[in-house]
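User: Structure please.
Assistant: Input sequence and predicted structure:
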Amino acid sequence: MAVDILMPALSPTMEEGTLAKWLKAEGDKIEAGDVIAEIETDKATMEVEAVDEGVLARILIPAGTEGVKVNTVIARMAEDGEDAASVDAAPEPAAAESAAPAVSEPAAPAPEPATEMAAAPAAPVLTNPDVPTGTTYT
């Protein structure tokens, strides 16, 4: 079964990036940890490493494509023993996408804003006969 290679989120706020270039070509053998592509964001250029091993079967997003959304399938990889030529260009639909949409429950009401609370009473002032008059400690 083919493995989808997704556009990674290189930061918590990243929503899209530019697929700057592919460092592997279709048909190339890939080992886990191999750098397969370079992704540019508005702040940096980062390398994408393979997490699985196999053969790069299909490149779906060409180099230089801007505005690629995070989690978009950018390529498909055939696993070891799988024929790379038999890998379809279109990713298989996820089970959640093919299922009927779930009926959403009404949203819970917003919590009431907190009311102002009175300040806590001051701590009692302790006195000690060994301490001079007018000096306090708590």
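Strands lie at 3-6, 16-22, 29-30, 35-40, 45-49, 54-59, 65-69, 73-79.
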